Amino acid sequence: MLSLGAHVSPLLSSPPYAPLLLYSVSRPPSRSPAAPAAAASAPRSLCFLRRSRSRSRFAAGRTRRPTMAEAISLEAGGDLYHDLGSAAVTAGVALALLKFFEELAKRGVFEQKLSRKLVHISVGLVFLLFWPLFSSGTYAPFLAALAPGINIIRMFLLGTGLMKNEAMVKSMSRTGDYRELLKGPLYYATTITFATSVFWRTSPIAIALVCNLCAGDGIADVVGRRLGTEKLPYNPNKSYAGSIAMALAGFLASVGYMHYFHTFGFIEETWYMALGFLAVSIAATLVESHPISSELDDNLTVPLTSFLVGILLF
């Protein structure tokens, strides 16, 4: 260290290097012509960057995509309008079908009992065909139930005499008495409303309820009156032909709608479900053939049996 300092100090103090040392110390560092502009522009560029970022955030706020909650709200609103339209179409078709059978009753195309059973068979089964029109929204089953729900009100008004419609009474009652609408037809509409709003299209119980009530019970009466010569030993008002027809019709209709809803992805089509439908149809047939169904009403006992057995199996 001492020897190095001894060699360096003479060099710095010698005359040839003194001007260089003084020049290097006294002269300010050189700047390029662009340096002042860069130095002056540096603060402005930071401010501009801050302003540009704030503007970009403001623009993003104006053009941002909707949040998940907003997207769900928009989708729910779209489903609601869609389901309202589907409910209007379904109710319109159901009312048009009733009007059609009213006109047939007025013109006497079919006898009264056959006309009543045709209404019984067709209205509920046609109604099931429109279930896939509705969305998977929360309000869909309740909006779908508006059509049979409106029919509940109509049956009540007609059955109490508050509203008059002789053609409808004739097409839906056994004897033409308007008070009959407070029994079978009211139970019928209530069952379909219950199956729609509570179980809906993802449940085999809904299929079993509607198909055994509409197809099973309806076909039993039509076949029993024409081919039912041999009566059941425990009920002379019921026949073997009618009971067999009821079990087959209810089962086949249930399996058909199982396949129909499976094509839309609502339920899984399995052999277990098919066998369950067979068990429900047989149980509903046995109860319908019992004298208690005549005393109460088969429009009450058949869906009640289908519901109880369906709860156990499905």
Task: Walk me through this protein's architecture.
It is found in: Plastid, Chloroplast membrane. Keywords: Chloroplast, Kinase, Membrane, Plastid, Transferase, Transit peptide, Transmembrane, Transmembrane helix. It comes from Urochloa decumbens. This is Phytol kinase 2, chloroplastic. Belongs to the polyprenol kinase family. This protein has 314 residues and is mostly helical. The protein contains 14 helices and 2 strands. It has helices at 2-13, 18-26, 34-63, 68-107, 112-129, 140-144, 146-159, 166-172, 184-199, 204-227, 240-263, 271-289, 291-295, 298-313; strands at 231-232, 235-239. It has a two-stranded antiparallel ribbon with strand order 1-2. Strand 1 and strand 2 (235-239) form a beta hairpin. The chain is globular, with a radius of gyration of 42 Å.
